[in-house]
């Protein structure tokens, strides 16, 4: 049984209702034609020339929903087939840090704050590993993999 929040979460860019200007900007990046007779044409980009993107905002503001809708627009429904993995990373002090990851064939989602003070090492090693990986299908049009990094910042208030 799925949670109501997950079941009714928008999964395409056209279903997103808030921040229409941001949605329109994302559509322009992935679609070669954006407005034809006032209709948005959702056609995937012919090239993989999409810039690095950073989504930020408070918790619950729709960052993950927007990212997943963008991935679905670029890669199709395969971006929603998510599996959970556990990865181990070695630190310079010879310590092993385990972190849980959600991933599909097209993206990796991590929460580096789960690694505590070793969050930087986890992100660096993951980016280095993805950059060194060769594409299995060299004729594929989309030659990149998205890394979705979730940082949780806790408000620490001084007690008086």
UniProtKB/TrEMBL annotation:
Membrane-crossing segments per the record: 26-45
Gene Ontology terms for molecular function: DNA clamp loader activity
Signal peptide interval: none
Keyword flag Transmembrane: yes
Lineage of origin: Eukaryota, Fungi, Fungi incertae sedis, Zoopagomycota, Kickxellomycotina
Example of a GO cellular component annotation carried by this entry: DNA replication factor C complex
The protein's name: Replication factor C subunit 5
GO biological process terms, semicolon-separated: DNA repair; DNA-templated DNA replication
Keyword terms: DNA replication, Membrane, Transmembrane, Transmembrane helix
Superkingdom of this protein's organism: Eukaryota
PANTHER family: REPLICATION FACTOR C / DNA POLYMERASE III GAMMA-TAU SUBUNIT (PTHR11669), REPLICATION FACTOR C SUBUNIT 3 (PTHR11669:SF1)
InterPro entries named in the record: DNA_Rep/Repair_Clamp_Loader, P-loop_NTPase
Organism from which the protein derives: Smittium mucronatum
UniProt entry tagged with the keyword Amino-acid biosynthesis: no
